[in-house]
Amino acid sequence: MPSNPRPTVRRRRVGAELRRLREEAGVGMEEAADRIGGDKPKISRQENGRQGVSKLEIEALLELYGVSDERLRTALTTLAREGRRKGWWAQYGDILSSGFQERLSIESDAARILAFQPMLVPGLLQTVEYATEVIRSVDKGATEEQIASYIAVRRNRQEIFARENPPQFLCLLDEAVLHREVGGPPVMAAQLGKILEINNPPKLTIQVVPFGQGWHAGTDGAFNVFSYPDPMDLDVVNLDYLDGVLYLEEDESVERYQLAFDELRTAALTTKQSMELVSSVQRDFAKRA
Fold first, then answer.
1. Which of 19, 148, 163, 262 is the 20 to 30 A CA-CA neighbour of 80?
2. What is the Cβ-side half-sphere exposure of residue 202, based on CA atoms within 13 angstroms?
3. Do residues 286 and 197 touch, judged by C-beta distance below 8 A?
4. Which residues, including other chains, have CB under 8 Å from residue 129's CB and lie 6 or more apart?
5. Containing domain of residue 24, as a range?
6. Segment holding 102, helix H or strand E
């Protein structure tokens, strides 16, 4: 587990805006550091969102940068304060890595989520039974209590779709996901049934990239792109790997994955065709259940 957790979305927003204001004012990092009694590494960590900024530090920096807009001052101090608040996932800190907790923070604040999954149904769409089988396979040493906690995390994550303003969720599944038997026919029949039930374009859209496409832009693995409505926000790409989670925030990297998602969506079946395929596979599993 990394010694320093990744920045929260709000910290990144505050840091990005402070960097912009500093650069526009022509102030160097050393001068900014002197103003708050710190050093260049501290300013760098704050601007990258990897360290919080206190209200007094924000006020001192904004004064140095010549910022008099009270609305901007209030917005930044409010964001900084909220960035120090713990999310619902903090209660599961004993079983969740810092990287995954940051994933939940990024996910919970997103206005749009683009997801491509070539192996499994994403956690946001999993049934309890499907999720239980996945957890048992990934963490063979997990106790029943730990499994129950993991399932609670899954269910809490899925609550974002019940919010008054839920994020737009566009999910592309490789056809292999439909056929990969997790937990046996009854579990798969119920899981595919849930996909049929919750698919609701354009807010929650699920499409399938069929086997017939052969090689496609997603053959390198699963990824997610998180987007936000505020111009202060930075889009983020999330990549899961065997031993952790990787986040990409640079414009060039994010644009590359957004392009890959667009190519995958072009290669995918339409929503109607996708649901027809899901329904067909679901019926086959139901017959075997």
1. 163
2. 1
3. no
4. 183, 186, 187, 190, 191
5. 9-83
6. helix 98-109
